[in-house]
Structure formats: structure tokens, C-alpha cells
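User: Predict the complex.
Assistant: Input components as received:
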Amino acid sequence: MMNDRDMDAVFQALAHESRRRMLDIVKDEPGIGVGALAADFDVSRIAVMKHLSVLEEANLIVSEKHGRTRKLYFNAAPIQMIHDRWTSDYSAYWAGHMTRIKYLAEARHETAPDEKKQGKS
Amino acid sequence: MMNDRDMDAVFQALAHESRRRMLDIVKDEPGIGVGALAADFDVSRIAVMKHLSVLEEANLIVSEKHGRTRKLYFNAAPIQMIHDRWTSDYSAYWAGHMTRIKYLAEARHETAPDEKKQGKS
DNA sequence: CTTTTATGTAACCTACTAGTTACATGATGA
DNA sequence: TCATCATGTAACTAGTAGGTTACATAAAAG
């Protein structure tokens, strides 16, 4: 239902703090216009519109023209999908393997936790 | 525990299909070396190393030198954190509001679902 | 010691991102 | 109609991402 290209777009969109903040604002004020949204940011209205394009590309925001204003709405579907994929594919499995690895992340030890494969090249 | 800058790094890292694939491979073959990993990709070993830098920057991969090889390990902690944040902050709230909005995403209607605020600027 | 192998660093190129200013369009209100 | 206001488009710039080739280092094997 969600291919890799779509996932790229969603992660890409979420990778910038300002865009996450836009999502929060649109979520809190559904139907907000472009200009009103832009007023909350330091950058120009055009910059905000470009961010909006990225978010619409990722389908995280949908909009509809209403007179001379464009109303913005948040769409949680893509996040739900990634959330679901993480829950099923990633988190469940990975969480089980975390304890074996996490000490490495916290303070790089010298002893390898596992010597398995490593051939192949 | 995870600030916005860290989140940027994780989303940025996950935004590219090749890096997600690297994560999958390292997850399946813990302790794999850089060269062995690079052999699974079309691009050069140096390109793969740069991707690895991004993943280590995001703390999604940790590594340790072992002789002349560097062993790579997957670290699920950042994903767990985002997963938790989504579960608590985002998904729970957003999921409740999805039904009101989703028809807009599926087939742009002409009627606004909500006329609320929209003032502010 | 010399050669090979695994990894790392440097310098460079191209494409894309994120921002800008200036101008265009199109609906509203007087 | 005409001025105004909200939004959209065009063209440009600076910086970063993602890729390359060439060279450097350091451990293992002979």
C-alpha cells in the first residue's frame, strides 16, 4: 500500500523541524490559510509554500481552494502507515535484539558481541 | 531524551531507500564489515561509507574496529524513541481525527469539513 | 619485508534544497 | 470599476547531498 518512493517522501518531509512544526500548527488549526500559517514563521511566505509543497507531496497535508484562500488540513494516513510498518516489521523484531547491542551504543566496548558471518565479499 | 536535531538526523537517515536497506542488511548480519556491506550495492564503497556516516550520525548504526575491519551493528533505540513519541504524541490524537479528514485526501471534495479558526494574521 | 586487503581521507562534480525578490493572477470589498 | 489582499509563479543564489576517482594508512598473510 505504501511503496519505497512514498516512504522517502514522508521521511524527507518529516526530516525538517519547521515542517514538523507546520504539521503541528495545521493539526491544531484545521482550515488555516497559507498566509496565516506563514505568519508563524520567520522565513518568507514563499519558503513556507515550498515546505507545504513537500508536505502535500508526501500527502501529509491536503488542501482545498475556498474563494481566494487555500485551506490546509492535516492527513495522518501516511504516518499511520509507517507507524504500522514499524510496529509489525521493525520494532517488534528489533526491540528483542536491542539489549544485545545497546551497551555498544552507550559506551563503545572493545569486545565484539557476535562473530557470525562477515564473509561474502 | 531526543531533541529536534536528533529527530532531524534520524528522519534524514531513514529518508533514503538505500540507507533503509543498509539497516536491514546490518540488522540481518550483525558484525558485517564495510566492504561486505558495500558489495550488496551498485554504488561505490565510498558512497556506502558516506551513507554509513549518516546512519552513525543518527545513531542507527554503531561500529567497532576489530583488527583491520570495522564491524557494524544496528541500534534500534532512535527508532524506538520516535515510535514511542508517535504513539503517545501523534498517532493517538491524530488517529482520532483521521475520519474527519480522510475523505479529503481520497477525493478532494468541494465542501469544507470545518470552518473553525483561520483568523490570526 | 613486501604484498595484499580493508578501511579511511581528499578533492572534485552535479543535482537538489531552501531560501530570496520581483512579478502575476484572481477573488473581495468599497 | 478599482484597489486590495491571498495566493501562485519565475528566476536566481548559496549551501548541502550524493556520487565519483585517486591516494593514504594500517593490519594480515606470504
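Helices of chain A lie at 4-14, 17-28, 34-38, 45-57, 77-106.
Let me know if you want any component modeled separately.
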